[in-house]
Design goal:
With 155 residues, this protein is α+β, with helices and mostly antiparallel strands. The protein is 45% helix and 23% strand. The longest helix is centred in the C-terminal third of the chain and has 35 residues.
Length: 155
Amino acid sequence: MIMLSTSILSIKWTITGKPKSFIAGVGGDLIVKVHSKFTLNQISGQVIEHEEFWDLSASSVVGQAFFWTSRRLFATIENGKDLSDLVKSLTNRPSSKKENMEIYPDPSGDPTKVSVPISFEKKQLLKITCPVSSYLMTKECIRDCADYENTITRN
């Protein structure tokens, strides 16, 4: 791992192993040399960009062919799953589910926060209870201070 600058991180690593398939196992070990390059935000340290370069030149031709074939097969299966999920979501759109229209996403972009509009009754209640609670708290504070002064003067 090397920091090329304050915002660029370079990591070189190697994956070695034997393919699970008997056919590919004839070709020997599979050796993948990976060079990962990360561009970071200098203030937060978050990854802005990520690049990877894979080098299979140390593997046999049979191992390389198996690797790229299995990778294509996996990608094809995952794309098929994504496509079926997309079709399902499109067919379920006009469903009878009612979304809660009283909850709005937070405008700052934080998905854990939501903004819920306050009803007129709650606003009126807040307008009354805030000043009353402030008055009562001030009254209690003054009374406690007076009681404290009385205990000091008696002693």
